[in-house]
Design goal:
Largest sheet: 7 strands, parallel
Shape: elongated
Radius of gyration: 22 Å
Protein name: Nucleotidyl transferase domain-containing protein
Organism: Ditylenchus dipsaci
GO molecular function, one term: transferase activity
Helix content: 10-25%
Family: Belongs to the transferase hexapeptide repeat family.
CATH class of the largest domain: Alpha Beta
Distance between the termini: 45 Å
Strand content: 25-35%
Amino acid sequence: MKALILAGGFGTRLRPLTLTQAKPLVEFANKPMVMHQMEALAAVGVDTHEVRIGIKILFSSETEPLGTAGKSLSLARKHLEGDEPFFVLNSDVICDFPFSDMMAYHKLHGKQGTIAVTKVEEPSKYGVVVYDEEQGLIHEFVEKPQEYVGNKINAGMYILNPLFSTLFHKVPAPLRKRCSRQWSRLSQRQPTLSSSSQQAGGFIGCEVILWSKHHSPVLIDKSAHIGNGVTIGPNVVIGGNVCIEDGVRVQNSTILSDTIIRNHSFINSSIIGRKCSIGRWVRIENECVIGEDVVVKDELYLNGAQVLPHKSIASSVPEPVIIM
């Protein structure tokens, strides 16, 4: 069985994190997003056997951006030849990947394609799928509708028959498969924070000082160092080789790998990028996003700041602003 992961795009809605790293490689719950997908695919038999997760990876590159579906399938067509259906995934989707259920449904209805949809509270932010509830046949896709047409959106997961890749523009729209499980497309800061916390179910792989406090859910890489009197959680992810010094408080936040948070700082509702150095007695809150390799000096306050990579912050940022 094969799968096509669509990994194009510039990742603009995840900047500044994607200014130094491709969006599929941005860590989610201490693992690159695309790795979550590949492991889930391998678990259901996507298996050309190679590399450490047991699948063979082939790359099909565009010389210029050509859109999501038709051109991508055309470029990858030679890799998708055969008799079996294949999966297609957007690379920015994280969920528990109901691939087995999707494949069973696909074989049951016997049509050329299946698409997973999921229910959202604010459909105006997404592409809405309008379909027949009884037959499952899709009538149309409405991108970011201004008026209510439905609340089921494209979940970014498909199953297609081999014929589909060669006749993409000629076959009817695929049937749908409702995705009722936890789903998130990582394209904005707040969903990234909340989705990571939903994946973090407890304390994982970290030796910590006994008098440090943790409030579940937290996910801590086993290589992280946690100092004395530290309070972590709830809803915190701490990446590999992170150093949290004494007296630090972290809640509702993600700290990416190789970052140091120095003594008595406070991080709330923010993302701290890779290889950052956060000084002593610093307060960072209100959905700050700190890019890679940023230095924040001691005793500063950052409120809702978006800081581009490789910056040195020497003064407080009391109002939300982009620091370039």
